[in-house]
Write a structure and sequence with these properties.
This protein has 165 residues and is mainly alpha-helical. The protein has six helices and no strands. The longest helix has 31 residues. It is globular, with a radius of gyration of 18 Å. The two termini are 14 Å apart.
């Protein structure tokens, strides 16, 4: 293997570690700073209620927007790095996919559609109930839209960037 290939391979691992760390950070924000009555993370976690509202409101710039940015950024990188050989098309598709997913959920919080359960009490029904709760309890925030787009753009840049020897 050439030195350039080794450097790029090492760079991919660094990106993966950063993405996984930030995804964990975003999950931690959900646990610590989301309202105790919310249905964030599809009910898989019970938020810790010991933080006061004052602390939460003072940190809102981080706790409010970071999860959208981190989600689009981290999952774009992780999805791109799944492929052994990545090219610009894979990178673009990964980044656009995760930004669009974030935007759909944000728009869902704005328009609050009601998904019906037609799967005869299957796991799909449970998922639809959780999505409905997420959309109805969530609040549309245009800054989250910008954060998701920014996260995807940063991921794209870092994935296209080739480290120098």
């Amino acid at each position: 293997m050439s030195t350039t290939h080794n450097i790029y391979f090492s760079y991919r691992y660094k990106l993966l570690y950063i993405a996984l760390f930030l995804l964990g950070f975003g999950f931690l924000i959900y646990i610590l700073f989301r309202p105790c009555t919310s249905e964030y993370a599809f009910g898989l976690i019970s938020p810790i209620c010991w933080l006061s509202q004052e602390i939460t409101s003072n940190l809102n710039i981080v706790t409010g927007r970071a999860p959208s940015l981190v989600h689009a950024f981290s999952l774009s990188i992780i999805t791109s790095l799944i492929f052994p050989k990545i090219n610009r098309s894979i990178i673009i598709a990964s980044c656009v996919f995760w930004v669009v997913i974030n935007l759909l959920f944000e728009l869902g919080q704005l328009f609050k559609p009601q998904f019906t359960n037609k799967f005869n009490n299957s796991y799909a029904d449970i998922l639809m109930n959780k999505v409905n709760l997420f959309l109805y309890q969530g609040t549309y925030d245009p800054w989250d839209v910008l954060a998701a787009i920014t996260g995807g753009a940063i991921a794209y840049y870092l994935l296209v960037y080739k480290p120098i020897e």
